[in-house]
């Protein structure tokens, strides 16, 4: 069972990492100042997740350690007016709380996607959350 779950996590990391690398390369081509820096950082993150997924599928113990870090990078969802960060590779199940006059909980999910947000500014409606799929994957990778 452990091997099947590790391979499933690895496949999601490979697919999301590859898709993310392609998206960041496309975003990097019209070389501008700010967007290119974010695209280079995204390219490095997606390359890291892709390499971790490849090593995890190969059955490497080093791949398990790298994949744990890759899942931790995908865990937080921060969207504040002064700072935003979010990363997902392959799939996500986000549980978040909007921070308004009347806070509310929300659930968002998608399979077969990638996304990277790093910005000094954010949305007008703040939200904080976690990626439950990344948390579950990290816990599965902790299995011995």
UniProtKB/TrEMBL annotation:
<feature type="transmembrane region" description="Helical">
    <location>
        <begin position="116"/>
        <end position="141"/>
    </location>
</feature>
<protein>
    <submittedName>
        <fullName>Uncharacterized protein</fullName>
    </submittedName>
</protein>
<keyword id="KW-0472">Membrane</keyword>
<keyword id="KW-0812">Transmembrane</keyword>
<feature type="transmembrane region" description="Helical">
    <location>
        <begin position="72"/>
        <end position="96"/>
    </location>
</feature>
<keyword id="KW-1133">Transmembrane helix</keyword>
<feature type="transmembrane region" description="Helical">
    <location>
        <begin position="5"/>
        <end position="25"/>
    </location>
</feature>
<feature type="transmembrane region" description="Helical">
    <location>
        <begin position="37"/>
        <end position="60"/>
    </location>
</feature>
């Amino acid at each position: 069972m452990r091997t099947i779950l590790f391979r499933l996590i690895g496949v999601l990391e490979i697919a999301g990492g590859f898709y993310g690398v392609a998206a960041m390369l496309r975003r990097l081509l019209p070389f501008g100042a700010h967007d290119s820096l974010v695209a280079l950082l995204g390219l490095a993150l997606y390359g890291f997740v892709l390499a971790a997924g490849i090593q995890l599928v190969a059955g490497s113990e080093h791949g398990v350690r790298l994949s744990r870090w890759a899942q931790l990078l995908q865990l937080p969802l921060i969207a504040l007016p002064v700072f935003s960060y979010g990363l997902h590779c392959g799939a996500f199940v986000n549980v978040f709380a909007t921070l308004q006059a009347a806070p509310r909980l929300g659930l968002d999910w998608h399979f077969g996607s990638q996304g990277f947000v790093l910005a000094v500014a954010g949305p007008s409606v703040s939200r904080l959350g976690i990626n439950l799929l990344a948390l579950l994957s990290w816990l599965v990778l902790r299995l011995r």
